[in-house]
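Hey, I'm writing a tutorial for new members on how sequence and structure tokens pair up, and I'd like a real worked example in the thread rather than a made-up one. If someone can provide the structure for the chain below, I'll link this post from the tutorial.
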Amino acid sequence: MNSVYKFILEEYGYDEPVFTKELKKNINISDGTLRQNLKRLSDKGALIKVRDGIYYVQKADSILQKPRVNIDKVIRRKYIKTIDQNVIGYISGINFANQLGLTSQTASVSTIVTNETGRPEHVIMFDKKKVKLKKSKVKITNQNYKILQILDLLNSLDQVSEISLESSIRLINNYLKNTNITINDLKPYIKFYPRKTLENLLEMELYNEPAQA
């Protein structure tokens, strides 16, 4: 069995997006050899090419004549959370407000704030699905993504929420449950947001006081 194909099967399995960028970091061969292997596997049909730099292994018993990977899964893996569970982005805007229950509205084009773009804001197309990408104000990590997500929300709360302030506070607090955000946690990020974000934060008291020494 081809060593690259074996590695992909062991690390990713079937119907999981495989990114060339990730493979380069995790497999001990030169970039040129990796490209040749991927092209050879793709030409043989062992790998299905979604687009440049993105592949997957189709299950052998698939009945689909035109195999397709789950595009939402590709987008999540590329822009939100890697295969090793590192958070690199998050859903923002009205679709995040909808997830929390603040509104019944949804947007046909999801907004994702991510580390994986160098441009302030632009729209990309995967298959027939549009996604708006926004560059994060700071590097997104497992530890801070919820903080940044809520700060983004507070910046546009009056535009996206259809419910009372009291209900909004309850739902946001439920999302932040077990996060234990203190004002000290917020200080590195609040400077990147308008004054109204801070005012909403203070009014809603969405943080805990730091423990006294």
